[in-house]
Amino acid sequence: MAEKDLQEQAIPDNAAQTGQEAPNDGAAAGFDLNTDENQRGTTHLNEPVAEESAAEKLKAELQESKDKYLRLMAEFENYKRRSNKEYRDITLTAGKEIIVQMLDVIDDADRAQKQLDTTDDVKLVKEGVSLVFNKLRNTLQSKGLKAMETIGTEFDADLHEAITEIPVPDENMKGKVVDEVVKGYYLNDKIIRHAKVVVGK
Fold first, then answer.
1. Is it the case that residue 158 has pLDDT exceeding 90?
2. Which helix (H) or strand (E) holds 88?
């Protein structure tokens, strides 16, 4: 019994002589964890957790998505306001170019009217009126206006509006346009007014 006590006392004495600390139970078990940051060990329970939790990450992503959505909505509202303003401006000034060109025709018509009031020369008046109509026609044609050619063509409900039918002596004119009451027009190859016609039967 005395020999065993002497052996147990020898262990701390040897550690003191070599300057080494006696190993603790945690180190002996392979752990480097302690609760005291002043003691040996690299991992302490009071150190902050480096990584965010899954809930915090989700919250941050949700906030980012919300911010993007609000920015997109604001940009879209601005786009709608700009588009509406541009549409109103285009609507108000859509006919400006043609109106400006028509002013020259109106000037010619005013001069022709003055001739009617100051001269008895029918030939001169007819020439003035003819010039006005030709200028008007040329101005409109330059903008894509084109008159339909209907007389002698087959009646086409997509192009013509039949006012009436009349008997015709020529068999070849049956079902064809024999007279034009109101001229039809295209604008850039699209029908803007159907021709009102008389059809042979």
1. yes
2. helix 54-93
